[in-house]
Automatic annotation (TrEMBL):
GO MF annotation list: AMPylase activity; ATP binding; magnesium ion binding; manganese ion binding
Organism: Mycolicibacterium chubuense (strain NBB4) (Mycobacterium chubuense)
Pfam families, sorted: SelO
Family: Belongs to the SELO family.
Protein name: Protein nucleotidyltransferase YdiU
Length: 486
């Protein structure tokens, strides 16, 4: 099969791209292939499963005119700037045109050391790559913008972590891999001796063309780009919050310009509602806790603004004033997306925000007090809208307070059909993800496939999937930890 891979990023932004090739994979075997996504990309699933297809999916044989590159970027990691991060174990193979003409990056993770690898081995283990596959599929099915997983191929190469694990490569598809950290890196190189002062503008123009083309028509295209990214990120984080998604490592290198969720490392879905929830083993201060995510997104956007300042205005003071005025719009945009989403979750999409917002605040306080499961609660509340309040009421310790709340909510005439369209039954629950990945690491892909079946149709309750709708045991939840970059 002849695959047309373009090299737009590599050609337009050579300073941010190092030509590189993947490490050999001694024994490539297909673990999972995303057939619907393959077809969206105009790729034949049976060809992708063939030896030539697998060689593409691990990067060892790419079309003759393709230019695989490791992308350079910087990043604030837990608040500290690392000027040179980049793809330590990933490669951009190039861009594909999907069947509707959209440009999509084809990218590999776990394909071997690159010049950005620092101390890392450049590899990835089967478990974490399947984790990204499962969770990104779940996010997509929940209508949350995300990079997609095309395939996971085991390489036959062992990876040394705490134990020796089977290695794998994830083939990932994204609107692009341009990040806030790409701009931070470009701003630094542009100013360095011998740097091209126009590099930042080239990157911004690339991002406008690919993600926010309307900005090209604006009076000030770079400010319009910034405003579009602010809006996309405010909407994205509101969607995360509505489903209880905790990204876990919202460093500036893990925030896209497209507004897609990227980098499923230590992410997890919250079970018992609590804004302080953190699962990542390295986030000891709770910087990236569930409830901090909107504030962190704004903090990252301020770092984006710092990189963009020279494009805003030659006069730094004026540039800063423009950036601040734009950043000021984040909170309102976020709150309105959140409030609109919560009204739908409560089945009262047309009720006025001034009435519903205080109800939401009180509900969340009660959920926190009673450690109510964030996902199953809204489905049970849907049953209450249909007249069966027993199951949801049983979740609360302070029954009088809940009854008072429910009376006010019912007075708004909630619609169960609306609630069932937006409140998922199935999310990738932490204990089920762990169980599935453990089995896959031991060679049994059955549980991963079954979990995928559940989370790919998250809103449709089905017999046989009961355990996928229930939270894990309290003891599991209390000790559950996720890990970065594994
Ligand atoms: P992440 O936490 O996955 O966003 O990765 C942060 C940085 O560490 C990126 O520059 C990655 O390319 C790099 N990195 C993570 N794991 C490895 C690895 N095993 N080998 C080389 N680089 C890595
Ligand atoms: Mg990353």
């Amino acid at each position: 099969m002849n695959i047309a891979l373009e090299s737009r990023f590599a050609a337009e932004l050579p300073e941010l791209a190092v030509r590189w090739k993947a490490e050999d994979a001694p024994d490539p075997r297909l673990l999972v292939l995303n057939e619907p996504l393959a077809r969206d990309l105009g790729l034949d699933p049976s060809w992708l499963s063939s030896p030539e297809g697998l060689a593409l999916l691990v990067g060892t044989a790419v079309p003759a005119d393709a230019t695989p590159v490791a992308q350079g970027y910087a990043g604030h990691q837990f608040g500290n700037l690392v000027p040179r991060l980049g793809d330590g174990r990933a490669l951009l193979l190039g861009e594909l045109l999907d069947v509707s003409g959209g440009v999509r990056d084809l990218h590999l993770k776990g394909s071997g050391r690159t010049p950005f690898a620092r101390g890392g081995d450049g590899l990835a283990a089967v478990g974490p790559m399947l984790r990204e596959y499962v969770i990104s599929e779940a996010m997509h099915a929940l209508h949350i913008p995300t990079t997609r997983a095309l395939a996971v191929v085991s390489t036959g190469r062992p990876v040394r972590r705490e134990t020796v694990l089977p290695g794998a490569v994830l083939a990932r598809v994204a609107a692009s891999h341009v990040r806030v950290g790409s701009f931070q890196y470009a701003a630094m190189i542009a100013q360095a001796p011998g740097g091209d002062p126009d590099l930042l503008r080239r990157l911004a123009d690339h991002a406008i063309a690919r993600h926010h083309p309307a900005a090209a028509e604006a009076d000030h295209r770079y400010l319009a780009l910034f405003n579009a990214v602010i809006a996309a990120q405010a909407d994205l984080v509101a969607r995360w919050m509505l489903v209880g998604f905790i990204h876990g490592v919202m460093n500036t290198d893990n925030m896209t310009i497209s507004g897609e969720t990227i980098d499923y490392g230590p992410c997890a879905f919250m079970e018992a509602f609590d804004p302080a929830t953190v699962y990542s083993s390295i986030d000891s201060w709770g910087r990236y806790a569930y409830g901090n995510q909107p504030a962190i997104a704004l903090w990252n956007l301020a770092r984006f603004a710092e990189a963009l300042l020279p494009l805003f205005d030659e006069d730094t003071e004026k540039a800063v004033a423009l950036a601040e005025a734009s950043l000021g719009a984040f909170q309102g945009r976020y709150e309105s997306a959140w409030s609109q989403g919560m009204r739908a979750k409560l089945g009262v999409p047309d009720a006025p925000a001034e009435v519903v917002d205080p109800l939401v605040g009180e509900l969340l306080e009660q959920m926190k007090q009673s450690r109510v499961d964030h996902t199953s609660f809204y489905r049970r509340l849907g049953q209450a809208a249909r007249g069966d309040a027993g199951p949801v009421r049983g979740e609360f310790v302070d029954l009088a307070a809940f009854d008072a709340w429910a009376g006010r909510w019912r007075a708004l005439r909630p619609r169960a059909d609306v609630m069932e369209r937006v409140n998922p039954v199935y999310i990738p629950r932490n204990h089920l993800v762990e169980e599935a990945l453990t089995a896959a690491t031991d060679g049994d892909l059955g549980p991963v496939e079954r979990l995928l079946e559940a989370v790919r149709s998250p809103f449709t309750e089905r017999p046989g999937f009961e355990r996928y709708a229930e939270p894990g045991a309290q003891e599991f939840a209390a000790s559950f930890r996720t890990f970065c970059g594994t």
